[in-house]
Amino acid sequence: MRAIILEKLYEWSLIPYQSFKKNQAWDMGIEDLLQYSKNTLGYEMGRFLLNNNFDLQEKLESHDVFHVLTGTGTSVPEEISMQFYLLGNGKRSIYLLTVIFLGGLLFPDYLKMFVSKYRIGKASLPFHQLDFKKLLDQPLARLKATFLIQ
Fold first, then answer.
1. pTM of the entire structure?
2. In Å, what is the CA distance from 27 to each residue of 7, 54, 91?
3. Per residue in 78-94, pLDDT tens?
4. Does the residue 24 lie in any domain?
5. What residue numbers bound the domain in which 116 lies?
C-alpha cells in the first residue's frame, strides 16, 4: 500500500515537474542510445530502459542516467535510496527532499539502506549537475572511476 501511495504521487507530479524543468529534452529514444558503442553511458542507458520496459521521459533523462551510474534498481525503496544517494552527492531540489521525507516516513524499515546510500553518495565526487547528454559516448567504467561511484 505504501508503494502505491508513492507511485500515485509520482504520477500526479510528473507533468507539473517536467513543465518546471528548464533543461532541454534530449530528443532521442532507446534505439538512438543503443547505437552508442558497447559499455558507454549511452549504450548502457539504452539497455537499462529496454530491460525495464521504460522510455526516456522528456526533460527527466538524467534520472535514468543516475540509475545507470549508481546501479540502483527501480523498486520504490530503491528509487528512494537513489534520492538519498543524490542528496549525499550534493543535489538539492524540492522534489528530491519531498521524496526523501515521504520515503523515510513510509519506509522506516529501509532507513539503514537509505543512510548507507547517502554516505556512498557523499563519498562520490559531485556528478549530479553534469550535462549527461554530452557524456553518452564515454565509457561507463571511466565515468564511475572518475567520480568515485561505487
1. 0.86
2. 26, 16, 24
3. 999 999 999 999 999 88
4. no
5. 2-17+29-146
